[in-house]
């Protein structure tokens, strides 16, 4: 029988989600902002809005908290170049706070109809 191959990254995300679901601490966005901007300097790669920079786009966040934590702990399974942040370097509570902060950031992607100048252009072409 031909079984599909699953990457180590996918296995880590799945296992991390299952294990961490019961152990995932609740995060606080205000603490997460300081950790993101000042302590760990996440903004240096991911931008202050989490949407630009040399690192992966974080907003809108599509991972669950457990999936995000598994990714941050084991990013070497992807070609991003992000260093791993072990629990010794970044405790689970701090990582949960960073996740809460990222989830609180607004998604700046708008539809053309929601941007007045583009809406005017679209309406004038009819």
Which fold name is given in CATH as the topology? Cytochrome Bc1 Complex, Chain D, domain 2
Count of β-strands:
0
Low-confidence stretches: none
Q: Categorize the overall geometry.
A: elongated
Task: Tell me the major beta sheet.
Answer: none
**What share of residues is helical?**
40-55%
CATH 2nd-level architecture: Orthogonal Bundle
Overall domain count: 1
CATH secondary-structure class:
Mainly Alpha
Average pLDDT value?
83
Question: How large is the count of helical segments?
Answer: 6
What's the SSE blueprint?
Elements: H1 8-23, H2 29-39, H3 43-46, H4 65-73, H5 92-104, H6 116-124
Helix pairs in contact: 1-4, 2-5
Structure write-up:
This protein is mainly alpha-helical. It has one domain: Cytochrome Bc1 Complex, Chain D, domain 2. 49% of the residues lie in helices and 0% in strands. Helix 1 packs across helix 4 and helix 2 crosses helix 5 (92-104). The longest helix has 16 residues, at 8-23. The chain is elongated, with a radius of gyration of 18 Å.
List keywords for this structure.
126 residues; mainly alpha; Cytochrome Bc1 Complex, Chain D, domain 2; 6 helices
Question: Could you write a compact summary of the structure shown?
Answer:
By secondary structure, the protein is mostly helical. It has helices at 8-23, 29-39, 43-46, 65-73, 92-104, 116-124.
């Amino acid at each position: 029988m031909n079984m599909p191959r699953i990457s180590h990254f996918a296995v880590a995300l799945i296992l991390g989600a299952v294990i961490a679901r019961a152990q995932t601490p609740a995060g606080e966005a205000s603490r997460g902002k300081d950790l993101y901007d000042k302590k760990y300097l996440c903004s240096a790669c991911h931008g202050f809005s989490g949407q630009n920079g040399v690192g992966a786009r974080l907003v809108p966040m599509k991972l669950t908290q457990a999936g995000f934590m598994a990714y941050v702990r084991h990013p070497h399974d992807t070609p991003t170049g992000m260093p791993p942040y072990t629990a010794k370097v970044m405790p689970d509570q701090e990582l949960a706070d960073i996740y809460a902060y990222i989830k609180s950031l607004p998604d700046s992607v708008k539809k053309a109809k929601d941007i007045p100048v583009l809406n005017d252009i679209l309406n004038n072409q009819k």
